[in-house]
Design brief:
Layout (H helix, E strand, L loop, with lengths): L1 H14 L4 H9 L5 H9 L5 H7 L14 E4 L8 E5 L1 H12 L4 E5 L4 E3 L3 E4 L7 E4 L2 E3 L14 E6 L5 E3 L3 E3 L3 H5 L15 E6 L2 E6 L2 E3 L6 E4 L2 E6 L2 E3 L10 E4 L2 E11 L5 E3 L4 E10 L5 E6 L5 E15 L5 E5 L4 E17 L3 E4 L17 E14 L3 E6 L6 E13 L5 E5 L1 E10 L10 H4 L11 E2 L2 E2 L6
Parallel strand pairs: 1-3, 2-4, 3-6, 4-7, 5-8, 6-9, 7-10, 8-11, 9-12, 10-13, 11-14, 12-15, 13-16, 14-17, 15-18, 16-18, 17-19, 18-20, 19-21, 20-22, 21-23, 22-24, 23-25, 24-26, 25-27, 26-28, 27-29, 28-30
Antiparallel strand pairs: 31-32
């Protein structure tokens, strides 16, 4: 019966070769519908396009233009020379703009505003626009940072129907934070650092055409929010700047990130617990650690990530490509994930699942529980790998990965033959798959529950050893 079922599946794959995308989506992503997602949430953001048209005449916008009230931070005492502290002027301007319907909080172009750690709180009157055309810079000295806000710089919470735009820059002045990091120098104490820009507990928010640079740690976090669209943002930090993730998404639903260029010292996009219905499209990543789901499960925690799509991306000279990373001892699941139409250019680990992730100064303890990874599809992925093992599926021995699908994969190395590594990974491939992934086979699962893993050296399987990756 088992042989018959496998044969039938292969026959169906052959018959549906042209429409293989839809066929496999139905099998492995049965409750994810791109079209329904768009229809369901279009109404929540229907005003975004209107506002784009309204502000095409900036910076000459008058106070009565299109019936909007412009609240200029300069009118509340902001100096804009990059030296004077403009924090209170920004807070006063925020209070006015937030309480005024159809208002614009304006940060004028060709000026630099020094702003300390600040929390901008809603709810606000309807259809607020934050027009950042100039540059907002953070204080550069870690020792003088506001102790009441150790983890945030510009923090926005409880917003609905708000748009951020304007082509300006948020500069985190992070160089001194990086040099004092324990990842730069092990003699330094490990301590937290601020996230530059946070949207928290908000809905129907649009972020468009902004620049982020040199954050203290994470550049942009979306937390506990619904229906957030991020378009045409540019994020830049040196490739050796520690923990400077580009966009970090946590506990949020119905998020779109599109048409954006990200280069940092950590993950270009990191996706962690509580994220569902995330669509990423037309992303350029590099330098950085790739586009990652995780890390998940640290400290025996439970994590759930579902319905994640990356469609059309280029990753160049990153330490990882598309990655799922989990700690031993966690629980929960990652499922309903699709990485497709991705170009890899000299990427160290183009496709990787690492369930033995251990970003710790000491070795991690062997544990049997793990986050369950299933229903993950890799489709139309090509390019060059810096390492021989272009695909690595290092799955948990006790909670194997299941329903891993490869379709139309073409990864090569400049010198030598590319390889695929598997540990307790169950799935199949169709179409062209290079390097071959015959190790995605269900007949090896019987060995996984009793396999012994040396965490200090990495999981071993059929003579291979996978080095643990940091970052």
């Amino acid at each position: 019966m088992k042989v018959l079922c496998v044969s039938l599946l292969l026959l169906l794959l052959t018959l549906h070769a042209v429409e293989g995308s839809t066929f496999l989506d139905d099998i492995f992503l049965p409750d994810f519908d791109d079209q329904n997602w768009d229809d369901d949430h279009e109404a929540e953001a229907e005003h975004w396009e209107e506002d784009d048209e309204v502000f095409e005449f900036f910076p000459t916008l008058g106070s009565e233009h299109s019936g909007r009230t412009v609240v200029n931070v300069d009118g509340f005492g902001a100096v804009g020379d990059g030296i004077a502290d403009d924090t209170q002027a920004f807070l006063n301007a925020w209070d006015k703009a937030c309480s005024t319907a159809k208002s614009v909080l304006l940060v004028p172009e060709r000026r630099k505003y020094l702003v300390n750690a600040t929390r901008f709180k809603g709810p606000c009157a309807e259809r607020l626009i934050i027009q950042i055309s100039g540059t907002i810079i953070a204080p550069d000295e870690p020792n003088s940072w506001d102790p009441k806000n150790p983890r945030v710089w510009l923090y926005f919470t409880k917003l609905q129907g708000v748009s951020f735009q304007g082509g300006g820059t948020l500069d985190g002045s992070g160089s001194k934070w990086w040099s004092s990091s324990c990842k730069k120098n092990k003699a330094n104490p490990c301590r937290s650092a601020p996230t530059a820009f946070t949207i928290d507990s908000s809905s129907a928010v649009r972020v468009k055409n902004l620049n982020f640079k040199d954050s203290q740690q994470i550049h942009f976090t979306i937390a506990r929010s619904n229906a957030v669209r991020v378009t045409a943002v540019r994020i830049a930090a040196p490739g050796d700047s520690p923990n400077t993730d580009g966009i970090h998404i946590t506990d949020s639903t119905n998020v779109v990130v599109e048409n954006s260029k990200i280069g940092t010292g950590d993950d270009c996009i990191s996706i962690v617990n509580g994220t569902s219905n995330l669509k990423m499209k037309k992303i350029y990543c590099g330098p950085g650690h790739g586009i990652s789901i995780g890390s998940l499960g640290q400290g025996n925690s439970t994590a759930m990530v579902t319905k994640v799509v990356l469609d059309t991306a280029t990753l160049q000279e990153t330490t990882n490509g598309v990655r799922i990373k989990t700690w031993q001892g966690g629980s929960g699941f990652v499922r309903g994930v699709r990485f497709e139409n991705v170009k890899m250019i000299d990427v160290a680990n183009p496709i990787i699942i690492d369930q033995f992730y251990c970003d710790s100064p000491s070795s991690c303890q062997n544990q049997t529980s793990a986050v369950k990874i299933s229903q993950v599809m890799y489709r139309n992925i090509s390019g060059t790998s810096k390492t021989p093992k272009a695909m690595k599926f290092a799955c948990s021995d006790s909670v194997p990965c299941s329903n891993i699908v490869l379709s139309n994969i073409n990864l090569e190395t400049e010198n030598g033959k590319a390889e695929t590594f598997c540990n307790c990974a169950n799935g199949f491939n169709y179409g062209t798959v290079q390097p071959a992934a015959d190790c995605l086979s269900s007949d090896k699962n019987s060995r996984c529950e009793t396999a012994i893993v040396n965490v200090n050296r990495g999981p071993r399987f059929h003579g291979y050893s996978l080095l643990l990756l940091s970052g």
